[in-house]
Amino acid sequence: MSAIALDGVTFVRGGRTLLDDVSFHVERGEQWALLGPNGAGKSTMLSICSATTFPSRGTASILGSRMGRVDLRELRASIGVVDARHPLGSNLSVLDVVLTGITSTIQRVPHWQPDAAQLERAALLMKSPGVDGPEERRWLTMSQGERGRTLIARALMTEPPLLLLDEPSTGLDLAAREQMITTLDELPSTVPGITTVTVTHHLEELPRGTSHAALMRTGRLVASGPVDDVLTDEAVSACFDHPVHVERDARGRWRATA
């Protein structure tokens, strides 16, 4: 049973085709990168993979459940989502932000209280991705790096088999970006069997454990498969419409230069 199976998916909004006949299959336990220029359709595709957007045409099955034939609330509880543009404007504590992963809400649900097991899991997750420090820290005074790692802990609260990350390194400085990449690299060992799909513009932001990659351009999937087969000079240059040289260093990190 695939983690993600999109077949012939097209998505149209306001008369504009954002995804055009996309077929995309991710098997369980794989670590995918989804790359492409601005406007390629990456975030739109991720929103379908997270069961928050329905395709206009085609079929989408997530974790073996076909959208349109399943209770989406139950399905979404099995999908962790990390978005660097998390729309939180209030000054919640780190602990409260992490606990909202249980209810899939932005704020703490009124009159809802976590049980002892949920509090224990939150405390564990706040340590494992490097979100260390006092629980009293507040969202509005946290650095972007701290926020990013907090959002990963939030996404893992329900022990989801599928984790989707939409540009998790957005706004991070060099040190915070490297800490984020280390966090992502450690996920398959800290959460055995997890499947991840990470959207990014930059090859330098890919974790070493990335197993597969897909390239998108103008709403179409132009390449997809094992990472070493997809991230080639020819394929990446065609995707970004610019001559690019791709290389991988001895540590397994990627780099692209013009």
Q: How would you describe this structure to a colleague?
A:
By secondary structure, this protein is of the alpha/beta class. The protein has helices at residues 42-49, 72-76, 94-103, 116-127, 144-155, 174-190, 227-230, 233-240; strands at residues 4-13, 16-26, 31-35, 57-62, 65-66, 79-83, 162-166, 195-200, 212-217, 220-226, 245-248, 254-257. The strands form three sheets. A six-stranded mixed β-sheet has the order 6-7-8-3-9-10, with helices on both faces. Helix 3 packs across helix 4 and helix 5 runs parallel beside helix 6. The longest helix is centred in the last third of the chain and has 17 residues, at 174-190. The model has no long low-confidence stretch (mean pLDDT 90).
What is the structure about, briefly put?
β9 and β10 (about 220-225) form a beta hairpin. α3 packs parallel to α5. The protein has helices at about 40-50, 70-75, 95-105, 115-125, 145-155, 175-190, 225-230, 235-240; strands at about 5-15, 15-25, 30-35, 55-60, 65, 80-85, 160-165, 195-200, 210-215, 220-225, 245-250, 255.
